[in-house]
Amino acid sequence: MRLVILGGGESGVGTAILGKKKGFDVFLSDAGKIKSNYKEVLAINKISFEEGQHTEDLILNADMVMKSPGIPDKSPIVKKLLDAGVEVISEIEFAFEYTQAETVGITGSNGKTTTTMLTHYLLRQGGQNVGLAGNIGKSFAWQVAENKAEGYVLELSSFQLDGIKKYRPHIAVITNISPDHLDRYEYNFDLYIAAKFRITANQTADDYLIYDADDETINAWLEKNKEKVKAQLIPFSLSGATKKGIYVKDNTIISKIKKHEFTMPINELSLEGKHNVKNAMAATAVAQLKKIRKQTIRESLSNFQGVEHRLEKVLKIQNVQYINDSKATNINSTFYALDSMNTPTVWIVGGVDKGNDYHELMPMVREKVKGIIALGVDNAKIIEAFANVVDVLVETTSMDEAVKIANKIAEKGDTVLLSPACASFDLFENYEDRGRQFKEAVQNL
């Protein structure tokens, strides 16, 4: 069986290792450059590969193709494979075939990284041997090849879910759904929603779907597609009591899952902000289903340290707080960030726009933002949206300059917030690179 892998990043190399171990004839192809550490791994494992091109003769003869999530379905090589009837799947689908371990699959437009890391932390603190994979950490396929974990917590993007046929998480979580990545879904929100709900497509009555009951998009889809969902539903909500699941009452999280009541005052959570209350509720639901002790859940929720590049407090300089929220690559994430600001804010925004409607942020900007620094190659939409709303709007194409300007605008008691609402590829390698450059620039002030 010939397994061809498109993309030589974390998921591609992980799949190559697992494929080789399972006896496939493996070939990896990347249209760009492969990082030197990955090339070393491929060489050590005697896996043939190419970079800088896709040689059709070596790809179209595949029995199966694993496509990395970053490669769109409309790329020419993928179209040719699909036209030739070759099966094209995701790393998650490929690796799932080779493990008996239970998985918790977590998706959503926002909050999925925090929820995934918090869930993993709760289960580890409870003594469970679980791996962390998907969009974060070492690839799922790589970990399945090493076969050291008894379960996995997977952060799953819509792109990863697009390539699944049989993958079935025992526990699925949908944190929320808002327009994102619409450039990959023909600018059709319904296609993106359907991609997210693929997470529950193969679930049975023995499985669980945990979801945000306050999210109108999720509720509307569930209402319309009742017969498609076989899993047991566990809602979480900030408002009022749900008959089952988790809700907030009197500033306390109350969870009634499997007849076990768990309570925790919101002010004891280590993570701040309404959105993090929801992330904590989702993670708590998983932990309770996995039979983690209440005391362990409580302790873990109160000492979890959060995620780098997500509302990360960097430094306070002359009583100005600098916050790195580089992971906010869409409008909804930035809405949460601005919502959690309690002081006048200098906002650094911009990058590669994925079809953003900035007007959704207007109430927040009017209330919280004193100055905007547009950091991107093309800032036209940002200027058009906010030029008449704030007193100061400055354009720049360098992080160093953006932070220096922010430092000039900010006064004692203010906050400087990097929350771009955009992808990073115009000026940076990725959102991590953008966040690190911000932190370095702040430290150099």
Describe the structure.
It is found in: Cytoplasm. The structure is a single chain. This protein is an alpha/beta fold and 445 residues long. It folds into 3 domains: 2-89, 3-Layer(aba) Sandwich (Rossmann fold), CATH 3.40.50; 93-303, Mur-like, catalytic domain (UDP-N-acetylmuramoyl-L-alanine:D-glutamate ligase); 312-443, Mur ligase, C-terminal domain (Protein-Tyrosine Phosphatase, Chain A, Alpha-Beta Complex). It has helices at residues 10-21, 36-44, 56-59, 76-83, 91-96, 112-125, 140-146, 158-162, 189-197, 216-224, 274-289, 294-303, 331-339, 362-368, 380-386, 399-409, 431-443; strands at 2-6, 25-30, 48-51, 64-67, 87-89, 102-107, 130-134, 151-155, 171-174, 208-212, 232-237, 245-249, 252-257, 260-265, 312-317, 320-324, 345-349, 369-375, 392-396, 415-418. The strands form 3 sheets. A 9-stranded mixed sheet has the order 7-8-6-9-10-11-12-13-14, with helices on one face. Helix 4 (76-83) links the parallel strand 4 (64-67) and strand 5 (87-89). Helix 6 packs across helix 11 and helix 16 (399-409) packs across helix 17 (431-443). The longest helix has 16 residues, at 274-289. The chain is globular and about 65 Å long. 49% of the residues are buried. The mean pLDDT is 92.
